[in-house]
């Protein structure tokens, strides 16, 4: 009888194309779904193609799909906790909230395979309202923030020519608009404080009870 410790271990494969990890170029390896840590992919293209099917079963370990949490979380970047409170005007605060949200949506799509809002060909407003609710619950909004100010912010987000959640924004757009190569990092860190985590390199993983608005 063969020793069980010497039994061959089935190679990990991409769940889409069945390409084995040993077939990939040295150092690349298979990538795991950043949310459930179970599904494995050989490329972003395979992950993107699989998401419509995978999102119905994708869960953070040990969690179930419930209503989005708005429980305040310890901010990953305490120095930016008051970021949305420090602008001179209300309109500037609205602008920064909108751009932080828009860049986060692009990062969610690129790194986390979350197709919410315009990336999922759905209305972006419910996702933006969820973003504002989380920011408020975390204590990140100015003291003057109330229902009327939220309506003004939402109105700008839906009607403004530039700061509009119906249009995507990427890193290079942010750099060009603000003429600041560090602005994308600042907005990403501010958004990470809102959600309690993020996707991509250098970000703290999302909280286990996070529920995506896809």
Task: Report the helical percentage.
Answer: 25-40%
Q: Helix count, per DSSP?
A: 6
Largest sheet features: 2 strands, antiparallel
Q: Which residues sit in consecutive blocks of at least 5 with pLDDT less than 50?
A: 1-9, 61-70
Order of strands, main sheet, comes to: 1-2
- Could you give the order of the helices and strands? EEHHHHHH
| Strand segment count | 2
Shape: elongated
- Alpha-carbon Rg, integer: 20 Å
Characterize the structure shown.
It holds the Pfam family zf-MYND. One of its GO terms (molecular function) is zinc ion binding. Keywords: Metal-binding, Zinc, Zinc-finger. The protein is mainly alpha-helical and 214 residues long. It folds into two domains: 11-54, no CATH class; 78-195, no CATH class. The protein contains six helices and two strands. The protein has helices at residues 44-54, 90-112, 125-137, 147-159, 171-178, 183-195, and strands at residues 31-32, 40-41. A two-stranded antiparallel ribbon has the order 1-2. Strand 1 and strand 2 form a beta hairpin. Helix 2 (90-112) crosses helix 6 (183-195). The longest helix is centred in the middle third of the chain and has 23 residues, at 90-112. The radius of gyration is 20 Å and the shape is elongated. The N and C termini lie far apart (51 Å). The relative contact order is 0.17.
């Amino acid at each position: 009888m063969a020793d069980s410790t010497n039994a061959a271990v089935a190679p990990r494969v991409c769940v889409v194309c069945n390409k084995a990890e040993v077939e990939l170029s040295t150092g690349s390896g298979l990538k795991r779904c950043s949310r459930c840590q179970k599904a494995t992919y050989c490329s972003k293209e395979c992950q993107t193609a699989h998401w419509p099917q995978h999102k119905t079963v994708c869960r953070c370990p040990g969690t179930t799909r419930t209503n989005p949490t708005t429980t305040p979380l310890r901010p990953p970047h305490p120095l930016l906790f008051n970021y949305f409170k420090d602008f001179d005007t209300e309109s500037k605060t609205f602008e920064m909230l909108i751009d932080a949200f828009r860049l986060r949506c692009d990062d969610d799509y690129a790194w986390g395979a979350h197709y919410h809002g315009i990336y999922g060909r759905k209305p972006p407003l419910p996702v933006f309202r969820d973003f504002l609710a989380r920011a408020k619950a975390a204590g990140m909004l100015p003291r003057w923030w109330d229902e009327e100010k939220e309506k003004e912010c939402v109105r700008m987000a839906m009607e403004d020519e530039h700061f509009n959640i119906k249009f995507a924004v990427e890193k290079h757009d942010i750099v060009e608009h603000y003429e600041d190569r560090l602005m994308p990092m600042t907005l990403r860190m501010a958004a990470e404080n809102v959600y309690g985590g993020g996707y991509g390199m250098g970000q703290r993983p999302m909280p286990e009870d996070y529920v995506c608005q896809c």
